[in-house]
Amino acid sequence: MAVESIAKTLGTGSGIDVTALVTSLVENSFANKNQAITTKNDALTAQISSVSTIKGNISDFAAALASLTSSGSLATQPTSSNTGIVNVTRLSGADLAGLNATMEVRQLAQGQVSSSQAFSGGSSSVVGGGKLTLSFGTATVSSGAMTGFTQGGGTPVEIDVPANATLSDVAAAINAKKAGVTATILSDSTGARLVLKSATGSSQAFTLSGTDGLSQLDVGPGATGSTISATAQDARVAIDGVEAKYPTNSITTMIPGARIDLVSASVGTKVTIGASSPSTALSQAVSNFVETYNQVFKAVQTATDPVNGPLKSDPAAKQLLQQLKRLTLSDLVPGAAVDSPSKLADLGVKTNRDGTLSLDSARLSKVLTDYPNDVEKIFAESAGLTKALSGISDIATSTKSGLGASADKYSKAQEDLADQKTKIASDTEKLRDRMTQQFAAMDAKVAAYKSTQTFLQQQIDAWNAKD
What we know:
Elements: H1 3-9, H2 18-70, E1 77-80, E2 86-90, E3 101-107, E4 113-116, E5 130-142, E6 145-151, E7 157-161, H3 167-177, E8 181-188, E9 191-198, E10 205-210, E11 226-230, E12 235-239, E13 242-246, E14 250-251, E15 258-262, E16 271-276, H4 279-303, H5 315-326, E17 349-351, E18 357-359, H6 361-370, H7 372-378, H8 384-397, H9 403-466
Antiparallel strand pairs: 1-16, 2-15, 3-12, 3-16, 4-9, 4-11, 5-6, 5-7, 5-10, 8-9, 12-13, 14-15, 17-18
Helix pairs in contact: 1-9, 2-4, 2-8, 2-9, 4-5, 5-8
Protein name: Flagellar hook-associated protein 2
Subcellular location: Secreted; Bacterial flagellum
Domain Flagellar hook-associated protein 2 C-terminal: 232-450
């Protein structure tokens, strides 16, 4: 008889609800093990959740600070008294403290621009095929004509043009070569012209010579089919009265740590280049740091509480707590002068009894006034506080020894519990089947005994009736 059928007939002989009895016995047999697994699983779930929260908190904290310091908003910024003539931008990692100079833009850098004669058939005018030769160097120009050319050290560039090429085909062939000259087609009521333009700088003047029908596009001394509308020239800039030449209008070698973008030339106009200290931004950054630190610290402190903390026994969480506690006294500017601020504590950041931080705003204000450059170094990009906090974050989230490893350990433990729970479920069913069969056999015997008892009772009753 199948176990299911047996279960349906249990108790018919003994009168006892054997199915309920078996269920109760089986459940009680595994109750302690199931409860223990549930308790461990709940604890592991809390640990995994806590680890995830803390990892996210410290990673986000470090990333936010790194983003802030890399933006340049906490560093001294260069200024220009006339942005219509000169724009100045700080380069990453630059120290522009004390920057003060005057600048005069006497000439902008430009590239050579030439245009061919107008072709009445437009851009589809056939000019023929062959070879174009492009050479770079320096040139003299007068009234739109190149009067002299000195070739530079580079090798001339040869450009193949297919047979029966149109003006558009020629422009495409030149651009495909990417040799330092860009070609466009300019069309108006008179027709289409091939316009050629080089990069800026006096050394970027060019000549173009073509074979066969392409010769009508020649550019250079003696060429009659083209006009030079812009001469290749360097920028001429005077810094504190000393003139220098540059091949571009974006200059990074004039003032260390700054990019100078020339907007327009204005001979005789002096532009003052200075620096602006980010005192307000630094003050806000310190305040924001303290506020965020306290949120992160409290989360770690709660998680590692020795009585109720889910991570009270987690070494990585405890290590993170200790590293955060030491941060205010860490030397963030190695090699700093004895009297200059190099720690958060020097800025007025104090550690309270409960481990959280508070800010002495008056102290910070004085330090920013007296040591603005040193405070800036504490918040330097990829250094100072940013480097220290990133280091703490890397250690804390490490998958080898940090919270990353803890998360893996707890997840593996949960998987093991799931396997144990599956085994217990299997053992439960086996025990249920075995006990069901045993009680079925017992119930059958009880039914037989009861049948015999009934027969004997009937016989006795019959004997007594004869008397």
